[in-house]
Amino acid sequence: MPMDRPIPAFYCCYLLRSTVRPNSVYVGSTPNPVRRLRQHNGDAKGGAVRTSRASLRPWEMSCIVTGFPSHIAALQFEWAWQNPHITTHIPAESRIQHAAGKKRSGPPKRPRHSVASLLSNLHLLLRVPTFSRWPLELRFFSEDVYKSWLKWCKSAAKPIRESINIIPDFPPLKTEVSDSDESPRAKKRKLSHGIQGLAVAYENEKAHVEKGKNIVDFEREGSCAICHDQLEHGDGIYAICPAPACESVTHITCLGQHFLRDDEDSLVPIKGKCPSCGTEHRWVDVVKELTLRMRGQKEVEKLFKVKRARTGKATASRAAIESSDEEDEMDEEAQRQEIEDQLRELAASDPRREKMVGDWHEIDDSDDSDTRSIDSRTSVASRPAGTQAKQLARLNAIIEDSDWDDAEILD
Fold first, then answer.
1. pLDDT tens for residues 266-297?
2. Which of 57, 66, 155, 389 could lock 12 by a disulfide, CB 3.0 to 4.6 Å apart?
3. DSSP H or E run through 299
4. Where is the composition biased (Basic and acidic residues) (predicted)?
5. So what CATH class is 205-303?
6. What number of helices (H) and strands (E) belong to the chain?
């Protein structure tokens, strides 16, 4: 499927757990975990009906999976994680959970989820061919959930690929010092843990993007560091080394083959060493800058936009916060619209599937009932039961049919 957006700066699938009733869990996806958690806990507009029950709040994000090559890829993984009993990404003989009967509308009924079942299915999904080569990262924010993960890893039939990073990210030990007595340094250190410390923008790519922009704008591509052919300006897809002091430029195909020298059976590499400086880089880091340079003009402009100086006035500060919240809402809405547009493009490839894409963002995970929840804008439940069931079944088919392989990171 053609794509006209860069690899996202951040997008994650998350496991939510009620702190009041730990057996109540929820799986979702978002580009902004901090804002999304506030929505689930009722501190911001939006959220899901399933998590709106006062008896279950507050919720906590126990762990997240990040590193998806596109928003669609994250949505695909989310659906498979929510529906391990029917997803085609898990072979039938490998399933850990199976359908709990059938719903009134006909489809298989989702088994009741728990932290243990979701972790076991997450381990399985990270091992299947569809997802095992993606540049994913699993980050834990709850120590007891992390211990449950380690316990399952010991009993699992096979380990997950070493290239998938597992990161314990627990908050620092609580002290008796109140928030009002904390120094600015202590508060900053506190925010470096958990979802508050996640980098959800392209800030980490800024130096790489700036170097690449300088090389291309001044036509300093030179020759390919691998095949040594001249790199004609504006006449090819060129990769630039992420290392700060290295200006190695190569054909993307040459670099791909160079990274795959010891893994010839695969289409897209996981990581490799720069042919010039010898520094090891992840393939996704190389490609992320490339996609920003080639189709991320808006994102690059936003990355280098000069921020206005603060006035120091309380009213101006409040206005800035409100403006930031509005921008976050607009960004998230734009990303939702982008995913919906991409799903529609997928459906448009087959006229018979043109009407299969509904409002994907309205679908919610419901692990203890057959109902589907929605966001605050519209209600699937308000539609006729037959229409609702057909829409959900069609959307599920679309997500499952978007069976991407590694090569589509660059398509």
1. 888 999 999 999 999 999 999 999 999 999 99
2. 66
3. helix 297-303
4. 333-344, 350-375
5. alpha beta
6. 12, 9
Pair 223, 230: CB distance under 8 Å: yes
Q: Against a cut of 0.85, is the pTM above it?
A: no
Render pLDDT for 5-49 as a digit per residue (tens, 0 to 9).
899 999 999 999 999 999 999 999 999 999 999 999 999 998 888
C-beta atoms surrounding 244 within 10 Å: 11
Alpha-carbon separation of residue 208 from 62, 64, 130, 202, 211 (angstroms): 32, 26, 29, 10, 5
| Neighbouring C-alpha atoms within 13 Å toward the C-beta of 177 | 11
Residues 6+ apart with CB under 8 A from 50: 26, 364, 365, 366, 373
* Spans of all domains in the chain: 12-200+353-409, 205-303
Query: In the 8-state DSSP scheme, what is residue 22?
Result: T
Alpha helices by DSSP H, listed for 14-142, are 33-40, 71-82, 115-125, 129-132
Q: Give the Cα separation of 395 and 410 in Å (integer).
A: 25
* Strands 271-273 and 25-30, sheet pairing: unpaired
